[in-house]
Design brief:
about 180 residues, 5-stranded mixed beta sheet, alpha/beta, 5 strands
Length: about 180
């Protein structure tokens, strides 16, 4: 039974894309890397999308994640911003699908709720909780990086792997714990 997995989290954006990679070992998680892709120097929207696709693909090839967790676009009043954000998310998802990487999408509220217990938490509160959970020294310059990590951590909490020791002790226990999965 697999007790380790790597999760890539992405906070899509057309100005800054945040990302984070965590590794789950049993019931514990550790931060592997977090960072941002700065896109403000590019004026062409198509080039920005290409850079997002390329960087996402690079992250997948470098860290070999088992799954991608990505933040879903939120509903805002500016339709143009939402379209751009949706495109950014779409090319990151396309990069994952191109690499046969399973993808999971979470709303901003769900991510904040999973990390802090409060779906309305600020970016700073999310970053602070992540620092406590993952025990890293300093906060990054851009909170988009911690938003990427937060997507990965949300996925960790939403889909914990079963652990070999004590989770299921045999078929009888499995059937008792999963009646809907056995016919």
């Amino acid at each position: 039974m697999k007790t380790e997995r790597i999760i890539l989290g992405i906070d899509p954006g057309t100005t800054i894309m945040g990302y984070g990679v965590i590794i789950q070992k049993g019931q514990q998680m550790e931060l592997v890397v977090m960072g941002v892709l700065k896109l403000s120097k590019y004026t062409n929207q198509a080039l920005k999308l290409r850079k997002i696709f390329e960087r996402t693909t690079e992250l997948i090839h470098e860290y070999h994640p088992d799954e991608l967790a990505i933040e879903a676009p939120f509903f805002g009043k500016n339709v143009q911003s939402m379209l751009k954000l949706g495109r950014a998310q779409g090319v990151a998802i396309a990069a994952a699908l191109n690499c046969d990487l399973p993808m999971f999408e979470y709303s901003p509220k769900k991510i904040k709720q999973s990390v802090t217990g409060n779906g309305s938490a600020s970016k700073e509160q999310v970053a602070s909780m992540l620092q406590t959970l993952l025990k890293y020294e300093t906060q990054p310059e851009y909170l988009d990086a911690t938003d990427g990590v937060a997507a990965a951590v949300c996925h960790f909490f939403q889909s914990k792997l079963p652990v070999a020791q004590g989770s299921v002790t045999g078929w009888k226990a499995f059937i008792a714990q999963n009646p809907g999965r056995v016919k």
